[in-house]
Write a structure and sequence with these properties.
The complex is a heterodimer of chains A (256) and B (257). Chain A is 83% helix and 0% strand. Chain A is mainly alpha-helical. In chain A, helix 3 runs antiparallel to helix 8, helix 7 crosses helix 8 and helix 9 packs antiparallel against helix 10. The longest helix of chain A has 39 residues. Chain A starts with a helix and ends with a helix. Chain B is α/β, with parallel strands linked by helices and 257 residues long. Chain B folds into 2 domains: 171 residues, 3-Layer(aba) Sandwich (Rossmann fold), CATH 3.40.50; 63 residues, no CATH class. Chain B has 8 helices and 10 strands. Chain B has a 6-stranded mixed sheet, with helices on both faces. A 4-stranded antiparallel sheet of chain B has the order 2-1-4-5, with helices on one face. In chain B, helix 7 crosses helix 8. The longest helix of chain B has 20 residues. Classes of the chains: A mainly alpha (256), B alpha/beta (257). The interface between A and B is medium-sized, with 23 and 26 residues.
């Protein structure tokens, strides 16, 4: 509680300094509008509705894309964990494709997929898949041997061990990947909207920025920040619901 | 003559080209408590994984209740030394016990749960059913592992140095708990340990293993009165005689190695 208060104070202090700097003419207000003006613009924009629909579009794209990619990546990692041949066949492909920055794929994807939802689907799933797959594959391969042997001695077969031991044991690490996927999803959605979009925060930011509506551009930044905070909060809630035991254990080990 | 619960004949096993077990023969009769001791690094744990069906043997044969082993059989349960890792940290203690009851079919979930609670009570953990394993002490964790093994209703319990990692007081308590449970549920037990005193204290029979590739070099009856007592039993002349004999055997192998 105290740390939250201290955190808020330092942010408020930063905003106050910015406000003073803007008013005293230390910085050119055409490019760095004062926080209060940005706030007013944001309220006005919300009233007009455009920024709201842009926010919703981007947020849903990131959320759906990251969710679909995570489920796909976990399924793939489970198959790779179960069948060595899948892992041997897929891992070199993963190493080959992973370094590709998703935004670089947009022009080619437009050519094949057009400008609609298929484009977003492809770019987002491609961008969010890797962190989840790599974390999941690594964690599923690292189950403590004694847990697997215990399960076998109690009559669990390979699939049952995967479901009852290896997957639950891997979930804490999988969530590290999911959390990365959520923020990457937002980055990829905004990047794709900037390059090829007709709506969403990426389009809104480009539109406002290129037409030199600076306060609106800053309002768009605030909206993007809120989207980032919200999607991360969703992951953290899901994590607490799924692996509450791990959250508790980590806290205990940290001595808090 | 009845069929032995466990029978190993001329078992040979190598791991990564190193011979670990070399022509080992032993058997366990119904209701017996057997301790297996040997010099450190002689392959006790490998032996146990072979006896439990977790590993196949290279030559020879292991049979359980007359059936040749091919994978871990129904009716055998293992208790590992590494209890903190063999328990599943995402399951509460009662759910860890339930984990051991997979082979119990045709029983409602409610009955299973009741049975799991009963087993936790038998090891003295009634109040800790809903704790996670990592919320209780090491000794309690090993008790959860014991309850889980018993809940599988095994005829044979294999114990792999289960008390090596707990403090002396807890070790004595759990030794006595294991003895009374083995008696109460009429289990056949095979305990692998490096602690000679523990081996004699617990067992009806002590089997001494050689260096690698390991085989049986002595098979000694323990004619000590039961129930055992931590103070009285350990000061019996017979206890001391056996202790000296086993320690001498192990020392002779250490100098030979």
């Amino acid at each position: 509680m105290l740390s939250l208060l201290r955190g808020s104070l330092s942010i408020l202090g930063f905003l106050a300094l910015w406000e003073i700097a803007a008013r005293s003419g230390l910085v050119p207000t055409d490019y760095f509008p004062a926080p209060l003006l940005v706030g007013e613009t944001l309220v006005a924009e919300i009233g007009r509705g455009e920024i709201v629909s842009a926010f919703v579009a981007t947020f849903l794209r990131a959320l759906i894309g990251a969710t679909a990619a995570s489920l796909l990546a976990i399924a793939m990692a489970l198959l790779a964990a179960r069948y060595a041949i899948v892992r041997r066949a897929f891992d070199p492909i993963a190493e080959f494709l992973r370094p590709l920055p998703p935004a670089a794929l947009v022009p080619l994807a437009i050519f094949f997929l057009g400008l609609g939802w298929k484009l977003y689907g492809f770019i987002l799933v491609f961008a969010c898949f890797w962190p989840v797959y790599l974390n999941a594959a690594q964690a599923l391969a690292a189950t403590p041997r004694v847990q697997v042997e215990t399960a076998r001695s109690f009559g669990y077969g390979d699939w049952a061990i995967l479901a009852h031991v290896r997957l639950p044991a891997a979930l804490p690490t999988i969530f590290i990947g999911v959390r990365m996927a959520a923020s990457i999803g937002l980055i990829a959605a905004i990047a794709a909207e900037m390059i090829a979009g007709r709506d969403g925060l990426g389009f809104y930011l480009m539109d406002a920025g290129l037409s030199l509506r600076v306060p609106e551009t800053f309002a768009g930044l605030v909206a993007a920040m809120v989207a980032g905070l919200l999607i991360n909060a969703l992951v953290m809630v899901l994590r607490a619901l799924t692996i509450g035991w791990h959250v508790q254990l980590t806290r205990m080990e940290a001595g808090a | 003559m009845t069929v032995p619960v466990l029978n190993a004949t001329n078992v040979t096993k190598s791991l990564g080209g190193t011979p670990i077990i070399g022509g080992l023969t032993l058997s366990a009769e119904q209701g017996e408590f057997i301790s297996v001791v040997g010099p450190s690094g002689c392959g006790k744990t490998t032996l146990l994984t072979c006896l439990s069906g977790l590993r196949n043997v290279d030559a020879g044969e292991v049979s359980f209740e007359g059936q040749k082993l091919d994978g871990p059989p129904d009716g055998m349960a293992l208790i590992f030394q590494d209890y903190s890792r063999s328990l599943l940290p995402w399951r509460r203690n009662v759910d860890n016990v339930l984990f051991g009851m997979r082979r119990m079919t045709g029983v409602s979930a409610q009955e299973k749960r009741a049975k799991a609670m009963e087993m936790l009570a038998a090891v003295g953990l009634s109040k800790f059913e809903t704790h996670f394993p990592w919320q209780v002490s090491g000794g309690m964790q090993q008790r959860v592992a014991i309850a889980r093994a018993l809940a599988a209703r095994p005829h044979l319990l294999l114990l792999d140095e289960p008390l090596a990692a707990v403090d002396a007081q807890t070790r004595a308590d759990i030794q006595d708990l294991l003895l009374s449970l083995a008696r109460q549920f009429q289990k056949t037990c095979l305990l692998v340990t490096h602690d000679v005193d523990e081996a004699i204290y617990m067992a009806d029979r002590v089997i001494v293993l050689s260096n690698r590739p390991t085989h049986v070099i002595a098979d000694l009856q323990v004619p000590l009165p039961k129930p055992r007592d931590q103070i009285a039993t350990r000061s019996e002349p017979e206890f001391l005689r056996l202790r000296e004999k086993v320690l001498t055997l192990i020392r002779s192998m250490r100098t030979a190695a």
